[in-house]
Each structure stands twice: as structure tokens, then as C-alpha cells.
Amino acid sequence: MMKISQDFAPPFKLIAPFFILGSIFYLLSTLYVFSFNVNELSFTDPKVLSFTHLFLLGFVMMIIFGAMAQLVPVVLEVGHFGVELFYAIWPLLLIGTLLMVFGFLYSSALLPYGGVIVLTSMMIFVGEIFLTIAKVKKLTLVMSSVLISNTFLFFGIIFGLLMALSYAGTISVDITSLLKAHVFSVLGGYIAITIMGLSIVLVPMFTLSHSFSLRPLEISITLMSVTVVLAIIASLFHLETLSFIADVLAVVAMLVYAYLIFIIYKIRPRKENDIYAISLMFSYSSLVVSIAIGLLYFVKGTENYLLASMWLLFFGFFGFLITGHIYKIIPFLVWFERFSPLVGKQKVPMLVDMVPTKSSQAQFVFGAVGVLLVTAALLFTSKALIGAGASFLVMSALAFLRNVLYMINFK
Amino acid sequence: MAMYTKDEIFQAISTVIDPEVGFNLVEMGLIYDASSDDEGNVKVTMTLSTKACPLHQMILQWVKEAVEKLPNVKEVDVEVVWEPEWNISMADDNVKKALGA
């Protein structure tokens, strides 16, 4: 008998802090949007850098790391090397994130400390993943994506630490030459490739889609890997043409991936539009619009377009992809721990019973309106729209936090 | 002579419900075959909707326990196969209708 994804589910108390903290950081990120002065926003603005790290480290990375504690055994088909290491990851990531956020805002002297603590947290994570992968006998495409993405994360955080040390004046390196290497390693190399690999396991699992080719996934992961390597070389050696080629390849990689998701969506037998389905629809639509606005930036060169494109990528694509999956992952983990031992002995809830329907819909609607309003605010430089968008986003994030706690405490 | 027919074993397994989709394994079309001998040894051949199912072992255990509830059953062997690969056409019409397939 072929054994796959055995009972490797880690204890929920190990994963719960990642999801609770991630939800709180999501709320803090939405509150931060109120402080945006839309007339002065720029990618070099320390306030924007602080916000970016608050959202990406505190929300995106925190949730991805927590989810990986559960998903890695499912994807790799072996148990963790040392799942207890995850107890050390979230406190370090929490402290490191806060130091970096405050460091960008108030004192750059905090950045090396924050950087080293984040680096330590991520090294533990990457090390644990590599040692788990070492137990795998034969790598599949999805398993390879985990290996590739974590390798890029390793380099991404090294570049980040060098920048943090230089920012604080501890060492002297050219920050601008490391910036693109850092951004592409983390965003394209780690987050995008992780999303590509895991979503091809999770989305068909929840939509019951079958019989689709994985060739587009192979192409998109290969293209994105090449993109990141080219971007690092271009960044370190100031090669403009190579940098442009990397940008184009990144767009193509994401479009090929989006096409595969569209195919999976089109052939899905499970057509109900629950919170998971609508969150993913908004997420992938945001990705496509983000790419379109990004292309406008290349044509017109206006930074507002780039800001709007990145905003949609972060809060639209990453944000809704993560919140949508949380409505599947948390109920499963809680159910597995609390109710699975009772199966056959007493009536147990279905996973869908554990999701607060109205509150999750409210979170989706407020969040979607907020994301669109802030996108419009960035495109049209409207201060009023920023405030309106932030108000909707805060309501959405409060509902999300409430929903996470509701699902965690479901009895 | 078989102690239980295929239908009787399927009936026993139909008490096992997939908590994600809310349908039992038999109406989902996940149970491919079942047989028993005259000594009460039962063999179930089944699949799962995905190889990455995190409930893999638990579902197998539930199937085993459901069959063991039949009187005089001695041993239950549950075999998971991936050929033919499951798809929605194997599910009952009520499942397809409820899912919108």
C-alpha cells in the first residue's frame, strides 16, 4: 500500500500563535494605511519601507511559516525533521519584525538588531525545511518548488541583512545595488514560488479539479527562478538591460501561473462560491490587474502606477490568497485536534460549520472595497480615497481577526 | 462463501463522511471494491480525491472501524489505489448536483 501524507499534523498550539500574530499584524498594516500621505509616497520613503516590512514579515511571512508547519509534511510526504523548532520561529520573527518596523520609522540603529533576529528566525525555518527535504527520496515538481523557494529565501535575507547593517552605518555597501536582489529573492524567489507550488496542491484539493497538465507550473517556476537569478546579477553589477529582461520574465512567469489557475478554476467540479472561492477569485483578479498596472508603469514611468501595482500585489493578491486559505487551514487543524478523535462516537461538525459565514463575507466585502479604494487613491493621488479605503480595510481586518479567534476557539 | 456482500460492506462504509465536502465516501465514489471470505476477513479497495489528503490515514482508520462494526468480522484490509484516478464522474448524482458539477 502506498502511504502518503500520514498523520504528521503538528499540534495546533504550535501553529496558533503564527495565525493570531499574523492576523494582528494584518490589522496593524491596515491601520498604517491611514498615515499614508499620497502626495509624497515613494519606495525610498522610510515610512513605506516600514509598512512593507510590517505587512510582509508580520502578516505574509508569519502566516506562511505557520501554514508550512502543517503543509510541508502534506507536500513532501515525510514528517518534519524537528517541528518543535517552530516554537522558536514565531517569537524571533515577532521581535525582529517590530524592531525593523520601528527601525525604519524612528531609529536606523535598530535595523541591524531586527535584521539579525529576523535572519535567525528564517535560518531556523530554512534549516528545518532543508533537513526535512533531505528525508525525501524522490523530489516531485512541487517538492522541488519548496527547495528552490527556500534557497532564494536564504539569499534574500542575507541581502536584507547587509542592507540593514549598511542602513545603520555598521558596514558600507551600496544599498541600491542590493535592493533589487533583496526584493526579487524574497518576493519572486520565495513568496511567488512558494505560492505557485503550494497552490497547485491546495486549490485542486479544495475544488476537486483533476486531469490538468502541470507543464504551465513547470514553466512558471523555471521562469521565475531564472528571473530571480538574472535580477540578482543585474542588481549587483548594475546591468540595466538584464534587469529589464528579469522584469519581463517575472511578468511572463506570473501570467503562465495565472493561466494554470484559470484552467483549474474552469474545470472545477465544486462550483459553490464560498468564502474560499471568492477570496481566491479576488486574489487572482488582483494579480492580473496588478500586472496590467505594472505594465503601464513601464510605458509611462509614473511611480504612482508602480505603487498601485505593488499595493494590489500585496493586499489584493497575497492578502486575499492568505485570508482565503486561512478559512480552510484553521478549521482543518482545529477539527483534526478537537473533533477527529470523536468520529464514530458522537456527531461532529463538518469543516464548513466552523467558518463564521456572515462575518467572513463581511471581511471579504470590506476588504475588497478597501483594496480597490486605496488602488484608486494611489492612481489618482486622492487623500480622501486613502482614508475611505483604510476605513474599509480596518473593518475587514477586525472581522478577520475575530474570525480567526472564532475558528480557533470553536468547540 | 462470502460472509458479506459488496453492497453490505459498502453500506457499512457509507457511515464514514468526508468532513471537507460533507458527503460519505461511498456516494463520493471513493470506494472501488469490497469483498469478504467465509471467515470474516474483509478487503476494501478505495482511493482518495487527492494524494495530498492530510486525513489519509485517519480516513483509512474510519473505514476499517466502520467495517469492523459488522458482526463476526475478523480482519479488515484497506488498500488505497491511485489507478483509476478519482474524478467527479465517479460520484453519485446527488453529490454532483450539490457541488454544481
Provide tags for this entry.
heterodimer, A: 411 residues, mainly alpha, 78% helix, globular, B: 101 residues, alpha+beta, GMP Synthetase, Chain A, domain 3, three-stranded mixed sheet, 3 strands, 28% helix
Fold and architecture overview:
The complex is a heterodimer of chains A (411) and B (101). Chain A is mainly alpha-helical and 411 residues long. Helices cover 78% and strands 0% of the residues of chain A. Chain A is globular and about 65 Å long. In chain B, helix 2 (56-68) links the parallel strand 2 and strand 3. The mean pLDDT of chain B is 92. The N and C termini of chain B lie far apart (40 Å). Chain B has helices at 6-13, 56-68, 93-99; strands at residues 31-36, 41-46, 75-80. Classes of the chains: A mainly alpha (411), B alpha+beta (101).
Strand content of chain A: under 5%
| Class of secondary structure makeup of chain B | alpha+beta
User: What is the level-2 CATH architecture name of chain B?
Assistant: 2-Layer Sandwich
What would you call the quaternary organization? Answer: heterodimer
Give the termini distance of chain B in whole angstroms. Answer: 40 Å
What spatial form of chain B do the alpha-carbon principal axes imply? globular
Strand order within the widest sheet of chain B?
A: 1-2-3
List the helices and strands and how they pair.
The complex is a heterodimer of chains A (411) and B (101).
Chain A (H helix, E strand, L loop, with lengths): L11 H22 L12 H31 L9 H20 L4 H24 L7 H27 L7 H33 L7 H23 L2 H27 L8 H26 L2 H36 L18 H24 L2 H26 L3
Chain B lengths: L5 H8 L17 E6 L4 E6 L9 H13 L6 E6 L12 H7 L2
Parallel strand pairs in B: 2-3
Antiparallel strand pairs in B: 1-2
